Amino acid sequence: MHKQLKLSALDLSVIIEGGDAASAIARTVEVAQYTEQLGYARIWLAEHHNMPNIASSATSVLIGHVAGNTDHIRVGSGGIMLPNHAPLAIAEQFGTLESLYPGRIDLGLGRAPGTDQLTAAALRRNNLGTAYHFPSDIRELQLYFSDDNIAGRVRAFPGEGLDIPIWILGSSTDSAYLAAELGLPYAFASHFAPAQFHRATAIYRQHFKPSAQLDRPYVLACINVIAADTDEEAHVLATSMYRMFLGIVTNTRRPLQPPVPSMDPYWSPDVEAAVKQMTACTFIGGPESLAQQLASFIEETDVDELMTTGNIYDQGARLKSYRILSEVLADLGRIAAPVVHN
């Protein structure tokens, strides 16, 4: 009997060529509604700033919008970049979200700025040292959510006494030690920073200390998945994602581009190598090859949850990719069978 996994989605409200922020957010809502029907456990939204082609900068606002347009899927942050914010403000924001949508809100926390240094300085009002306070800021946040702060002179309303699961996000070994020390679930950004994934999760499991929130290590791996009826179709769809990463590597970012027959005209060997290194945890193909790839990955990593992001230009193909993935994992005996077939 295989270990049952949870399956979830990550979305950045990426703006496609010819689209805008409003249409990107509408696409996000549609993904949330569709993955909810399929039985996905959660959908997370990520904080990014000063990026003209990503519409998820006001992450808490977007979480509320998505939660308000869905019924039961968990909605959260993957993540809130805590050094950009006062812990009290995040406690109040997520306390409000949990009050509106009880039992459905996750708070994933990251240390990175989610932007460039100049923008980070603007967000943090030139106090770039806030990143060093990340562990103590998490503890402060936990205090605001706890009943133990009833005698505190500074309290979070709404927020105090609410059960809002906190996750530690990471792309390096630093976050692994912290998640283990705090006894919190650990979500690794293997969809764009896979290099330290195996070492970080090993450190997390080895050093994990049980906590009130969690009695054993819990690892979520975020991966790129581009699924289609055939391998050939999936690899064509994946060119949009590769062109997006190419823009990151070469600092020539554009809205998400339509797919092209081949990437050969678009990248040099050096750029291709850099992109492929960033996207090493990417799974592309039809159901049969996807099953083989994912079965190997799951066995090798022993993850508890897969979170998938699929930057596909065509929305219909994107939704279909989420469905094919859930069907593949159901056939592998890893999740319950999805209920939507259209």
Explain what you see.
The structure is a single chain. By secondary structure, the protein is α/β, with parallel strands linked by helices. The chain contains eleven helices and nine strands. It has an eight-stranded parallel barrel, surrounded by eight helices. Helix 3 (87-100) packs across helix 5 (134-145), helix 8 packs across helix 9 (269-278) and helix 10 crosses helix 11. 49% of the residues are buried.
Helix-strand makeup class:
alpha/beta
Let me know the number of strands.
Answer: 9
Mean pLDDT: 95
Measured as a percent range, the helix fraction is 40-55%
| Poorly predicted regions | none
The Cα radius of gyration reads 19 Å
Please summarize what this structure is:
The chain is an alpha/beta fold and 342 residues long.
